[in-house]
Amino acid sequence: MLQTSNYSLVLSLQFLLLSYDLFVNSFSELLRIAPVIQLVLFIIQDIAILFNIIIIFLMFFNTFVFQAGLVNLLFHKFKGTIILTAVYFALSISLHVWVMNLRWKSSNSFVWTDGLQTLFVFQRLAAVLYCYFYKRTAMRLGDPRFYQDSLWLRKEFMQVRR
Amino acid sequence: MGKKQVRPPRALPPAPSAVQDDVSQSRPKRKKSRTKATLASASLEGFDETVVHRSSEGIEPPTNELKEHPEAPVQKRQRKTRLPLELETSFTQKKTSNPSLLRNENGIDAEPTEEAVIPKPRRKTKKTQKAQLQYANELGVEDEDIITDEQTTPEQQSRFTAPTGISQPVGKVFVEKSRRFQAADRSELIKTTENIDVSMDMKPSWTTRDVALSVHRAFRMIGLFSHGFLAGCAVWNIVVIYVLAGDQLSDLSNLLQHYKTLAYPFQSLLYLLLALSTVSAFDRIDFAKTSVAIRNFFALDPTALASFLYLTALILSLSQQMTSDRIHLYTPSSVNGSLWAAGIEEQILQPWIVVNLVVALLVGLSWLFLSYRPGMDLSEELMFFSDVDEYPDTEIKASS
C-alpha cells in the first residue's frame, strides 16, 4: 500500500519538476544574456522531463495492478500520458538543440525561421498538454484502488484474459 | 524470563481456588515440616524462602520430600535440566496447579519447588511409572475436567499437571508482547484484532486520495486566479498597444519604440498564464475523457467552450513568438542591420495587433464562461469520486 507521506513527497517532487518545466518554457527566451545560461536551463529541463518519466514509471511499478501482471491495463489507462510525455521529450530536445545551435554564436540575434516557429509552437503546445496529462496521472495514481486487490481489478483481469 | 512469563497465568480463574484448597489442607502439616526442614537441608532453604511468603503450600512439600526421600536432590537435578525448556511452554498449566511456584525468581529454582510440592501422596504409594501412565491419560482430558479434578484432589493434580501442561488445551491464547507472553482469552483476542482492523481502516484519515484531492483543489485555486489575471493582463495589453499605436494605427514607430522592452516579457507572461489557465480549464472538463469533453463542447457547455477558447488563444499567442522577438530586437530602420526595413512595420504589426486583440477577446470570454459556473469540476467528480460511477455495472454483475 502506498504511504501517504511517500506519495506526498513524490507528488511534490513531480510538481516541482513540472513547475521548473513551465518556468523554463515561459522565460527561457528572456534569459538569453549568455548562451550558456540557456544551455544549462535547457539541459536541466530535459533532465527534469526524464526524471518525471522515471518517476511515473516507478509509480506504475509500485501499483498492485502492475505487480499483478496487468501491465497492459496500466498502459491502456495511461497511454495518453506515456505517449505525450515521450513526444514532448523528443520535441523539447530537438527544439533545444536547434535553438542552441542557432544562438550559440550570438545569443541576441534574430534566428527565427518558419520551421523553428512551427517546432516552437508544437513544443510549447505539447508542454501544456504534457503538464495537464502528467499532473492528472500523478494524482490518479494516488487512488488506493491501484494498490489493492478489488472486484474491479478482477473484472479487468478477466477482460484482459479474454 | 521466568519471572516475566509467570505473570499472565495468575489471572486464570482456577488458580486461586486451587491455592486456597492447598492451603487449607496443608496447614496442619506445615508446622511439623517446618521444624524438620530447617534442620534437614540447607540446600532447599533458598527456594523455600522465596516460596514461603507467597503461599503456604510451597513450603510444605520440599520438607516432606526431604523427610521421606533423602535422594530427592539428585532427582531434582536431573529434572532441572529439562525443566527450563518446559517452563516456556507449559507455564500456563503450572499456574493452574500452583501459581506461587511460578513467581520464583528463575525457572530453575521454581521448578524444583514444584517438584517438591507435588510428590507427597503418590510417591508414598507408587512412583514415576504410574505417574507417566496418568500423564498419558490426562492428555485427552479437557480443561473443565482438569479443574474439577484439581479441586477434589489438589495435590495429586498439582503433581502431574506440571509436565502435562505442554499439550493440554487451554482456553487462553498467549500473545507475545514486548518480549513476554501474556495470556488473553481467545474471544477477547478476536475482538481486539477486529478492533485493530477497524482502527487500521479508520486510522489513515488522510489517504493518498485526500492528498491528490487537496493538491487538485489547490491547483484549481491557482487556476482560478490565473483565469482572472490573464483576462486582465490581456485586456491591459491590448489597450496599451492601441494607445501607443495612436489613432488608426498611425504611429507604429512610436509603438515599437515604447513597446519593445515590454513585448517579450509580456509574451512570456502570457504563455505562463495561458498554460496555467488551459490546464485548469482542461481539469474542469476532464479533457482526458475525450468523449465527455467533446459531448460537453457540442452541448455548448460554458466550461468546455472556455477550454477550447483557451487552447485557441494559446496557439495564436504562440504563433506570434517570432513577431514578438522581432519587436524585442527592434531598431530603427536607419540603423545598420535593422530587422525593420522601412515600410514593413505596418505589414508585420497589423496581424500581430489583430492576433493580440483576438487573444484578449478569447481570454476575456473564457473567463466569463468559467465564472458562469465556477464550481464545476468534472475531474474531481470523475477521478476522485468514481468508485460508484465508473464501475457500477461490473460490481452489480459480480454481485448478482
UniProtKB/TrEMBL annotation, chain A:
Membrane topology: Multi-pass membrane protein
Positions of transmembrane segments: 36-61, 82-104, 116-134
Coiled-coil intervals: none
Cellular compartment(s): Cell projection, Cilium; Vacuole membrane
Keyword Membrane: yes
GO cellular component: cilium; microtubule cytoskeleton; vacuolar membrane
Any Pfam family the entry gives: TMEM138
The keyword Glycoprotein is annotated on this UniProt entry: yes
UniProt entry keywords in alphabetical sequence: Cell projection, Cilium, Cilium biogenesis/degradation, Glycoprotein, Membrane, Transmembrane, Transmembrane helix, Vacuole
Domain of life: Eukaryota
Chief location: other
GO terms (BP aspect): cilium assembly
Role played: Required for ciliogenesis.
Family: Belongs to the TMEM138 family.
Protein name per the record: Transmembrane protein 138
Name of the gene: TMEM138
TrEMBL record, chain B:
Protein name in the entry: Transmembrane protein 237
Gene: TMEM237
Membership in a protein family: Belongs to the TMEM237 family.
One Pfam family linked to the record: TMEM237
Recorded coiled-coil stretches: none
PANTHER family registered for this protein in UniProt: TRANSMEMBRANE PROTEIN 237 (PTHR28388:SF1)
InterPro entries per record: TMEM237
GO cellular component: cone photoreceptor outer segment; microtubule cytoskeleton; nuclear speck; photoreceptor connecting cilium; plasma membrane; rod photoreceptor outer segment
Compositional bias per record (Polar residues), positions renumbered to this chain: 89-103
GO biological process per UniProt: cilium assembly; regulation of Wnt signaling pathway
